[in-house]
Amino acid sequence: MNSSREAVPSKVRLFPDYADTVLWFTEPIDYATAQLSPALTHELSQWEQSYYDGLNRDFEWKSPSLAHRFGAEGERLAQRVADELGDRFEIELLAFVEDVPERKFRASGPALNPHAAKVFNALAIEIKEFEEEVLRAQEATRRGENTEWYAYAPLSNTVYTPQQPTE
User: Fold this and answer.
1) Cα dihedral 20, 23, 27, 30 sign
2) What is the pTM of this model?
3) What is the DSSP letter of 61?
4) I need a surface site. Which of 27, 48, 79, 105 has the fewest CB within 10 A?
5) What residues contact 91, with CB distance under 8 A and at least 6 apart?
């Protein structure tokens, strides 16, 4: 297994979803945390707002031209995010526009914004360490060991602990 301190290329998703950010890295990443350039952060925020402004009450595009502009702007911004983060990150654009398919963008070189790349690299390491911890817990559970992991359902006040699988 690779050392978790060594980040692997990672996927950042770019899409609006009522989270006050369009940046997703297993969960929404707020703009302040992302540390992208102020100009790009502003453009991402404007792009997100154009999504909400372009939809009617039924969450359909008000016009095909609004949808097309949103999709085209998303492609431009996805490449800008890729360029700021560098070639270790793949940006997946989900534009929610019929004629704009899901696309992936990658920089052709190192990060133009090393600070933002460092932030996302640290997030990637955290995610990798968590995934490794989950795998260790799953293996321990299969061996019948207590992992001290649990889940809590607050509405029912129920605690769930992993059980050894039955065969």
Assistant:
1) negative
2) 0.79
3) B
4) 27
5) 11, 12, 13, 14, 78, 79, 81, 82, 85, 104, 105, 106
